[in-house]
Write a structure and sequence with these properties.
By secondary structure, the protein is of the alpha/beta class. It is built from ten helices and 13 strands. α9 runs parallel beside α10. The chain is globular, with a radius of gyration of 19 Å.
């Protein structure tokens, strides 16, 4: 029996898919597990910031199409890349335990964010990161930068920049955590929806594969991420907007922090909600509604006009 795992071909995506492959292979020794690489729109367009390309699912659409055509049996995604609404015939069958969801700073001289010089050039193509950085330090100059994690680290040193912001999860999964200068606190930098979490997407009619991968599902992570994705869905947003949310399950309480900002970080609307974990979706929806009413609706309408 052969199980085909679909993934992007980037170093990080391959490392994540290989992590899944190894665990499935260990669980089912008689199963042959193969990786199948799929090139996505986000991979093809490398010379533009993601926020200017437009559309949702820039890193997942082609992989989902391969799944629907039965060219692969499982799609492994970074959940932060997956739109809040999935195709009707697909579902997230398992969400493994989350890696560190923080954003981190890597600077040339190992200087923390507060010690960077006035007007420091900061590398990031994320509107979410840029907005929160500029809210904290309006003097910063944001420099668009894309590429694999190791590519961004090389660009930090080859281009005229003082620092870059990347996800801790990617660094840790690629054994590059030694480059971290500073872990940014959630009070300053809320992460992207689903950041640090993987999603195993399956066909709804493939119950056998669904049962096979359920051992990888991590209830605290799934609960937190479901709340975050409900927040995003209610905002009708994509992963390229200045929107952030983080859920955390502690005992019998699920807490959820959410944020919407304008692209310059001048207006930031942030709120928090908590409740029982079985209300994860309702909590995410309620938090989004509160933030929309507090000013985020006008912010998002202005961004969409642009």
């Amino acid at each position: 029996m052969v199980l085909r795992i679909g993934t992007r071909a980037s170093k990080l995506a391959l490392a994540q898919a290989q992590w899944v492959r190894e665990r499935i292979a260990a669980q089912y020794p008689d199963l042959q597990v193969k990786l199948v690489t799929v090139r996505t729109q986000g991979d093809r367009v490398r010379d533009k910031p993601l926020s200017t390309i437009g559309g949702k699912g820039l890193f997942v659409k082609e992989i989902e199409e391969a799944l629907q055509k039965k060219e692969i049996d499982i799609a492994v995604h970074s959940l932060k890349d997956v739109p809040a609404e999935l195709p009707d015939d697909l579902s997230i069958g398992a969400i493994p335990e989350r890696e560190d969801p923080c954003d981190v700073l890597i600077s040339k001289n190992n200087a923390p964010l507060e010690d960077l010089p006035k007007g420091a050039r900061m590398g990031t193509s994320s509107l979410r990161r840029a907005a929160q950085l500029l809210h904290y330090r309006p003097d910063l100059e944001i420099v668009p930068i894309r590429g694999n994690v190791d590519t961004r680290i090389r660009k930090l040193h080859s281009l005229d920049m003082h620092a870059i912001i990347v996800a801790a999860a990617g660094l840790r999964r690629m054994d590059l955590a030694g480059h971290i200068t500073q872990v940014l606190p959630f009070t300053l930098m809320l992460p992207a929806i689903g950041q640090g979490a993987l999603g195993l997407e399956l066909r709804m009619d493939d119950q056998g594969t669904g049962n096979m991968v359920m051992f990888l599902d991590h209830y605290p992570t799934r609960t937190a991420v479901e709340a975050e994705r409900a927040f995003l869905k209610e905002l009708k947003g994509g992963c390229q907007l200045p929107v952030a949310c983080l859920g955390k399950l502690t005992g019998s309480t699920l807490s959820l922090d959410g944020m919407v900002a304008d692209v310059r970080g001048e207006k930031v609307v942030r709120d928090r909600i908590s409740g029982p974990p079985h209300d994860a979706n309702a909590l995410g929806t309620a938090l989004a509604q509160r933030i929309l009413e507090a000013g985020a609706r006008a912010i998002l309408e202005d961004i969409y006009k642009r």
